[in-house]
Target: MFS transporter
Amino acid sequence: MTLLASPSTQAHARSPRRWLALGVLALAQFLVVLDASIVNIALPVLGAQLRMDTTALAWVITAYVLAFGSLMLLGGRLADRYGHRRVFLIGTAGFVAASAAAGLSVGAEMLLASRAVQGASAALLAPAALALLTHLFPVAGERAKALGVWGAVAGIGSAAGVLLGGVLTASLGWQSVFFVNVPVGAVVLIAIPLLITRDGATAPSRLDLPGAASITGALLAAVGAASAIEQFGLAHPVVWGLGLLAAVLGAVFVAVERRASDPLVPLAVFRNRNLTVGNVVMLLVGAAMVALFFALSVYMQAVLHYDALTTGLSQLPLAGALVVAAGVVPSLIAKAGARMTLAGSLVMLAGGLVWLAFAPADADFVAHLLGPSLLIGVGMGGAFVTTTQLAVDGVEGGEAGLAGGLVNTSQQIGGALGLAVLAAVATMRTEALGAAGVAEAQALTGGFSWLFLGTAGLAVLAGAVALGARRS
Model:
């Protein structure tokens, strides 16, 4: 029995195996999200063996994020153009091959090139996978449950990266954080053709190359500017130059799309208010999430002196709460509606982040961190599931890949910008406290406190967007 049919009938495809197919798709998405964070713990060991300085190590992360974030929209449209399953399999194969090459790297150049190919492959994989999900579950109730699984995977992948990175690096070496993708990716490549039949093109036959070039350049410049903030500071000319380039190319893209007969991103898609709200909220929540997991890991290791494994284990309650929330949220959406559920989730997320901001420099995990971690997990799980559902609500088959590309791009761009800006704020606060004679641990804690309050502000702003925008 098939899971997907021709473009004209795929919206009605049904099969008992679609839940198994969802599990395999979620496994691939887990790898994509995991790979953005699992490498962090391995960087010191990796740098020592490959003789990479701090700037070069930053590019191990940046090369992946740049390619992933800037090519996502193009990847989604290619999936609509050439078939979602085909592009998903190509992206997965590229991701597996690049992971193997990264683990075999004998120098910085080979590793950075492999990371860039990983990111580009993920930009094909991620939007195509979400598009396949929307076709597998056309009925609203089942789709909400499927998106619950999807949202849980997205949140768990980020949290699990710290734990798995520490375990693998300590036991098997830094290469294992890349090699772990190979057998898992192989399972995905074997299983998907058996579970999902080939789907045909649903987008226009011509690819909008000027639009693709301008938006890819704009996103590349935007993510590059965010990465430059971390390295050079907010006032550096490189940051402002890349920011200006991103704005100019973004304006060029809008002008091109208005005139294109077959646009890469039909601007009319933003008339779907749920899609627009979903992407704006995902931008803000993605910014809060990436900054949170980065700061929480550094706080636990630099201030509380946890080792890598303890740091990962300490984030398990947050991940567990996220999973539970993701399972419950679909029924809440059915009763209260997506926007009220989203607003409530964001309030809980903001509350947990404010609570965490008051953790002291000598915090006890049970007394000071467990409560806010659980609250953050519940809020984040609800926010991810509901936001993703809004972002694909009412999208037709021919734009499913585009919708997947948009929401993934919003998450990645938001994460890059949020981490860069909030990390800069935390650094300034820490330096100011240090200059005033405050002890190092207290100064670091003060900086992280401002960062956590900043993430709470992003969650509150996202809630205001969710409640304030009119329904589609």
User: Anything to note?
Assistant: Residues 13-200+264-468 form a domain with the Growth Hormone; Chain: A; fold (CATH 1.20.1250.20).
